[in-house]
Amino acid sequence: MIKVVRGNPTPEELAAALAVVRARAAAAASLPSGAPAARDSWADPARIAAHRLPQPGPTAWARTYWPS
Predict the structure, then answer these.
(1) What is the pLDDT of residues 18-28, one digit of tens each?
(2) Region of residue 34 (phi > 0: left; psi between -120 and 50: alpha; otherwise: beta)
(3) pLDDT-derived band at 51, boundaries 50, 70, 90
(4) Which of 14, 37, 45, 50 is the most buried (most CB within 10 A)?
(5) Distance of CA 68 to the CA centre of its chain
(6) Are 2 and 9 in contact (CB under 8 A)?
(7) For residues 62 and 29, what is the distance between their CA atoms, to the nearest angstrom?
(8) pTM score of the predicted model
(9) CA-CA distance, 40 to 37, in Å (whole number)?
(10) How far apart are CA 53 and CA 67, in angstroms?
(11) 3-state secondary structure at position 9
(12) Whose CA is closest to 24, among 52, 2, 57?
C-alpha cells in the first residue's frame, strides 16, 4: 500500500510515481532468486585498479582516480 504523507499530488503526478514503483518492482521480480544485485560500474573499485598507476610528479594526484 502506498500512502501520500505530505502534499496533494495531482492524478498525473501520482500515476508517474506509481509507474516508477511498478517498474522497479517488475525489474526486481525478473531477477533470478539468489542473484546478487547489479553493481554500478562507476562505483566498482576494479575500474580504478585495472589501470596502471600514474608516475610520480606534480600532477600525479589529479590522475590517480581518472582512468584514461
Answers:
(1) 999 999 989 88
(2) left
(3) low
(4) 14
(5) 22
(6) no
(7) 42
(8) 0.45
(9) 9
(10) 9
(11) coil
(12) 2
